[in-house]
Request: fold
Amino acid sequence: MGALNYIVQQTMNALSLGSTYALVAIGLVMVFGVLRLVNFAHGDLMMVACYTAFFLVATGLHLGLFSILIIAILVATLVGILMERVAYRPVRGASNIITLLTSLAVSIFIENIFVMFASPVPRSFRSITPLFLNIVNHWGTLVVSNINLVIFGVAILLLIFLLLFVTRTKLGISMRATSEDLMAAQLAGINIDRVIVTAFAIGSAIAGVAGILWAARIGRIDPLMGFTPLLKAFVAAVIGGFGSLAGAVLGAYLLGFAEIFLIGFLPPSLSSYRDAFVFLLLIIVLLVRPNGILGSIEREKV
Amino acid sequence: MSNINQKSLKNFISLLELLGISSILMLALAVLGLKNPYLMRVAILVGINIILVVALNLSNGFTGIFSLGHVGFMAIGAYTSSILTLTVATKSTNLPSLPIWLAHTQFGFLPALLIAGSLAALIALLIGFPLMRLSGNYVAVATLGFLVIIHIVLINWEQFTRGARTFSGVIQYTTLWWVYIWILITIYVVWRIVHSHYGRALLAVRDDPIAAQTMGVSILRSRLLAFVVSAFLSAVGGGLMAHFLTSFSPATFYFTATFNYIIILIIGGLGSISGSVLGATLVTLLTELLRNFEQSIRLYGLSQIILAAALVLIIIFYPKGLIGYREINWLQLLKLGSTKGTNNNSERR
Amino acid sequence: MLEFENVHVYYGNIHALKGISFHVKEGELVTLIGSNGAGKTTCLHTISGLLHPKRGKITYQGEDITYLSPYKIVKRGISQAPEGRHIFAGLTVKENLIIGSIQRQDSSGVATDLKYMYSLFPVLEQRLSQKAGTLSGGEQQMLAISRALLSKPKLLLLDEPSLGLAPLVVQEIFAVIQKVRNEGCTVLLVEQNAHKALEIADRGYVIETGSIILEGSAQELRANKKVEEAYLGGVS
Reply:
């Protein structure tokens, strides 16, 4: 059954791609939830984690893989927290455009620091990627590589963990409350500074994880590597709805399916334009349902 | 009645002031440039940036359509005008698969610029139509999507653009005169739109997303007009840039460029034409300085870091830009010696 | 207990509170009445720390709380049920209540207080797992008050609890307010419905365009001709 096989294979590819985007989108939406800020530097946090891991290996300290991962994620988290404190807190409450520009500036700042000190030449990530991740499995006629399985697994686990966190823990519920109604949250006695920092910490840590997995998948890192995942995650979040984790994940998988679908169905001459179609989709979604598929229609008080 | 005449007279005078100051500025740069070809290049760059930022301000600052995609229009202008002005010989070497009617024609500079501008205007009309009712954040995102789409098209449409490779061989038509004349045109056109009856209405709804949603058709139309004009001028600026650089690639018109123009816009102040003029001058000169510094000590990326940090600091400490929302009252400025223009206005809004 | 001294608050260039002074003694139910935009909500926001005055001082139980951040003020025992309810629509009723008790460490005390809330407002217990946004206006107000009470405040600020509610519901809520006050909680009540407010208050202040123009006991204010005409509909 060639057709069925094809569909299953493409579905698996779409799930893999979608999971990759989901990892990035989850972190992005976490921060947006509490701050109403699209952190353009989110992709750069991914990059920071990768370079940390890279340099830890390069120093030849013989740390275990696990330790390297932990340290890399920790560094990304710290940078994220620093980012919030230095650049975003002073402009909290300012107009959307202002916060957007601030995050753009932070992104360019970090990218160029690494361009300056780490050189813009891409480096190979193969030395860090454990060999088993590169194994490609052949299940009958289906092809799936281990790295994709891992990414899928991590995405699902992360989603479950986060959903539990925001529904079962005091801090998580506070976060949801803060993202719904900042003023009411303050009046209820929630320390919003703490909530925001926590959201940033979690979001940045997730970015770190996402970054390392992304780099493991494509095999190399460079200072500007965060750009593409950010754009894709952004599209995913817009499509699914920026307001919720579920929306981000839904949007990510929809995006994954859309891309795979486009690769399959576009005539070969147009196939490299598929990203353009993706962004066209973004614009259409913005026009028709600006709050995304899962987003509620924001009722503005007149 | 006489009140209105008084006001229009005031407007007219401040327009003249602005044109005058811009002319003096260009003259100063020209004098420097005459002695030194490198400085001349800097002067031209300053001039082109003035055009681009004033055009951008028309959209972002005055009508509230915060576009992050105007560099896309610039790219359209650059590529279109360049394809048109390339000699037949260059076309056959660099763009061998061009359709016959293009491959065997060569346009003059002005026609090419106008055609490029019109193409951009047409595209702006098409995409602007649905965008008009969106506000703030959504427009920014949508226009960002537009920029990405243009970029992807440029990279892939090898037949016309040579894809991601450098597009070279463009004749260096752009001189300081060309730039100067287009500066005057740009400032005049933008001024006229802003100070027209519709312009004031646009300003009133600029910052109010709810009002934006309930805007009447005539206001929507003028918003669209401003957006289209802004696209036209950006394309012309792009064309001027293309015929100044003589070679470029899709990467020239992407995020780095966007960021640089946004910085100038913010520093100069959203909604201030004179602010854009001054901002463009300052930031272009500063960027050039930093770029040279960066080259000499081989720390690439430093200029961007400094600019990014500067933007953040300015956003935090001077959210209205160094000059603010008002036009600079030049006479008062000269009299008082030095002050930030936020309190000086030659006219009330 | 609470001293609001010569407070000036600005919204940008707008002088919203022009040197307002009032006080609330422990155990009292004091009301601030006045028309829309007079500055009543601004007063409450300033007490709660959402706004900070340019001039003036706010003292609570002897401590200067003028520039404290909002969560610290809640910690000290001042809680507000804001105008328009502002319940967390996407969270369940239970979660809203949890938020109310977020600062408390004593889970058994919280459980006891929750039971007390259910006794005051039985409908809340019925709707525990529903999303708060699906509640009616009156139910949302009950939720907002419960949420404010769950932090075990010594001073409860209420901003227009009757707004947009049917008379019967208003009755119910005001009965609860009195009960709460009788159990020892001091209440500062901001209301447009001056009639109802003065019925249950000990003392009151009348605010107009940022200044206090009248003050006195509830009786005095009710008898006052100006108040009668302006706020009580001219019917005695």
